Amino acid sequence: MARLWPLTIRGTGAVLLGLVCLIVAADRGVVELLYVAMLLFAVVGAAAASLYAVRRADGLARTVEPDVLTVGQEGRVTVRVSLRAAVASGQGTWRDSLSPGLTWCPPGDGPGESVRAEATAGRPSGFGRGAAIGLTARWGTAGPSAARGVFPALASGLRGEAHTVDVDYRIVGTRRGLHTLGPLAVSSTDPFGLVCRTHVLSERTRVAVAPEVIDLPPLTDLPGEAGGSRHTSSNELGQGTDNLIPRAYAPGDSMRRIHWRASAHRDELMVRQEEQESTPAATVVLDLATGRFSPHAMRGAGLDDGFESALSACVSIVARLVREGYTVAVTDSDGRALADPIEGGDLAAVEMLGTSFATLVTRRDDHLAELPPLFTGAMSGPLVVIVGRFDAEDAATLAPVAHHSSLPLLFAVSPVDDALPRAAAHGWRVASIPPGADLVPAWQQAVEREVGHVVA
User: Fold this and answer.
1) Any idea of the CA torsion for 435, 438, 440, 446, to the nearest 10 degrees?
2) Is the pLDDT of residue 69 over 60?
């Protein structure tokens, strides 16, 4: 960022002209040219002194709004730069570096649109001091590695009062993870535009980019526990209630829950649905096995598109279930909690979940086979399983789980052959969510489809 040659084109021309005057004065004996050469050198020297001897940067303060971005979300960055200069300076430039994963977003349709910067002096005395000065800065060419613009000219501060300049720009989070803003480089010229000096302020600011959160359609009115507290205020059912919706008996069901009347009517064992709790619960299982994605998913955040699709689906589905009134538990396939249970309606906790997922990576071991024992002992509310690679063997592994959930949903990033139809045949509502696919139709169709159908 530092300039190897401190003079501008104008300053370089002044020095060259002074040298020519010296040569001609020595060769022709023209004393006036000697005076001109000395004057040019003196002006350039004074300009350099005004920037290098009596000008310094006191630091900066950088803020980002909002504190945490999601992938694709736009944020606003405000940088307040403090400078001390006894002599007025001309217009310059600023450049704030962005790490990969953040992209500068110029306002409007392209370069040339103005933004507002304010320059203020520390004490009110003299021209341009002690009052806010309205200034405009034009954007340069857009680029992924840095934001840049025009730094305003500053009035003189004979007593060395600090000038503060606020520069605003917008960024977009393009990749999940922890990223940095900075260092900031401010280049200024003297009032004559002869010398340019660059101050590099090394302060850096971290910006967390969380998985993209997609607004999913609400759940339709579903019976029993699948409905959530938004649909049923009280669903406590008595032992002799006849308007229950029975389901087929599954291995592991208690014999005390057999619905004898429905069993006699259908000529097969049927069981009563679990009684609705006052606070309905749901579980979202995110399988973190590296083997189901790619090795890049374990090396760092935002490096595997398939894993990013799974994370976005996880946070989006949790947000929808929380809005529906469920208390949602988020776990790995072995039952290990990935976050504290989120109470129904607590959207702030959903944002915290997304923030905690900003640096989440996969792990080596595959624990999908440990999932069935966690749910085959009793009836649960909605159960959402999100996996990467999913094959026929996995469908057979998860077969006993579907009958123990009032709303079993299975989303696979990379299904293999007929794995999803096999899972659907066992009672799962299934959908494929490859990278780049729209999650909304996959979610809506999986929820609304009858058990046994596949969403392509």
Assistant:
1) -60
2) yes
